[in-house]
Specification:
The chain is α/β, with parallel strands linked by helices and 391 residues long. The protein is 26% helix and 29% strand. It has 11 helices and 23 strands. The strands form 5 sheets. Strands 1, 2, 3, 4, 5, 21, 22 and 23 form an 8-stranded mixed sheet that branches. Strands 6, 9, 10, 11, 12, 13 and 14 form a 7-stranded parallel sheet that branches. α2 (80-91) packs across α3, α6 crosses α7 and α9 runs antiparallel to α10 (335-342). The radius of gyration is 21 Å and the shape is globular. The two termini are 21 Å apart.
Length: 391
């Protein structure tokens, strides 16, 4: 099927084009992009579907590389149908690709979950499952967040191979603590597998992060959170990420996990190619109901995020990618930059070579979004899964 979405402002994930333009899609790929003036001069076959974007933004689909669950389904329970429903629900919010993210648990339980997720890849009706993000188990017991201390362990290449085999090779990225004994050997092993390593849940000294950079730990997990903080005698993980241009970072732009003014510092020290928006959303995100659960514990929504009901400790994020886009624009970034943070940057860092950009030969993962950040159309690999433009 051939579709042409026209009369929109194309923010491609690379360029900031403020003139009206069109995108031509053939089957699952982007065929061409061109100006609205050229569109008006073209003659299309009768079988080409023309969709008027009505002056709204045409942008790449969002890629969430760190998300635990959505609307009551997630990796904590991790059923095949639940993960597929998560895919369908995320698509309605503009997410066209995602990395289901596992907290550490027993190795046997992690293997069961990895097998479940890998078994449904290729059967999605919504957002594409690109592979798994492991948020552990090789993390620091001193920076657990809400994770359980009995689930973390020292680096072990044999355990890593067990997890890799259970996932049938579908582990895309993994959060690790660079300071752990044996991390250098594990990092080199994972780099050989093609896994993107992220410094996070780490109590590293500055020098530990530098050593991690040397073996390929070049990305960081929910920057500023669950990591050693900046100090004038020990810059820690936060200082190392800010200082070293090789390092890129995830960030949760909900205004709770990171103070809005810190985004100004981030924008001065990291380039626009090194920032990645993630939600780190928990299973009850956007879920209705009185009793909400995440990772087997009851949580309540309060002050912009989830808290454990038992002790009021912050349990995790309730962010969506479209809210993250809106928030980071309100923090002072341009919309073109925000789109890049949610699409082309994660695609490049995760090595998704055909996603994240509106350009010929790339997958036709496309959104139409209005100026109030409402998603009007979602296309995933040529299939329209949401369309409010023609209602």
């Amino acid at each position: 099927m051939t579709v042409c979405i026209h009369n929109g402002i194309v923010l491609s994930g690379l360029t900031n084009n403020q003139s009206r333009s069109a995108v031509l899609i053939k089957d699952s790929k982007i065929k061409d992009t061109f100006s609205e003036e050229r569109f008006k001069e073209m003659n299309f076959d009768n079988d080409v579907r023309l969709i008027d974007a009505k002056g709204n933004y045409i942008i790449p689909g969002f890629i969430d590389t760190h998300i635990h669950g959505f609307k009551g389904n997630g990796t904590d329970v991790c059923t095949a149908e639940g993960i597929l429903q998560m895919s369908r629900d995320l698509a309605q919010y503009g997410v066209t690709a995602f990395n289901p993210t596992l907290y550490p648990s027993s190795i046997d339980e992690m293997k069961v979950k990895l097998k479940t997720i890998s078994s449904v890849m290729g059967h999605e009706e919504g957002a594409r499952i690109m592979g798994v993000h492991l948020e552990g188990p090789f993390i620091s017991p001193d920076k657990l967040g809400v994770q359980r201390p009995e689930t973390v362990r020292l680096p072990d290449c044999d355990v890593m191979d067990e997890l890799w085999n259970a996932a049938e090779g579908h582990i895309v990225n993994m959060t690790v603590a660079p300071e752990l004994k044996g991390m250098r050997q594990l990092a080199l092993h994972c780099i050989d597998m093609g896994i993107v390593l992220q410094a996070g849940h780490t109590n590293a000294e500055y020098e530990n992060i530098v050593e991690g950079i040397q073996v390929g730990i070049l990305h960081s997990t929910h920057f500023f959170n669950a990591m050693s903080q900046l100090h004038h005698r020990n810059p820690g993980a936060v200082g190392a990420v800010l200082i070293h241009p090789e390092m890129s970072c995830e960030i949760i732009a909900d205004g709770v996990h990171v103070h809005p003014d810190l985004f100004k510092l981030l924008g001065r020290d990291k380039t626009r190619e090194q920032i990645v928006l993630v939600t780190d959303a928990l299973t009850p995100t956007e879920q209705k109901g009185e009793h909400l659960f995440a990772n087997g514990e009851e949580v309540v929504f309060k002050d912009g995020c989830f808290h454990r009901k038992s002790d009021n400790v912050i349990a995790g994020s309730s962010l969506t990618m479209k809210k993250a886009i809106k928030n980071i624009v309100s923090f002072g970034y341009s919309l073109a930059d925000a789109v890049k943070f949610a699409s082309s940057n994660p695609a490049r860092i995760m090595r998704y070579r055909t996603k994240g950009i509106i350009a010929p030969t790339y997958d036709s993962d496309i959104l139409v979004m209005d100026k109030l950040f409402s998603i009007k159309l979602v296309m995933i690999e040529g299939k329209i899964v949401k369309n409010k433009l023609e209602d």
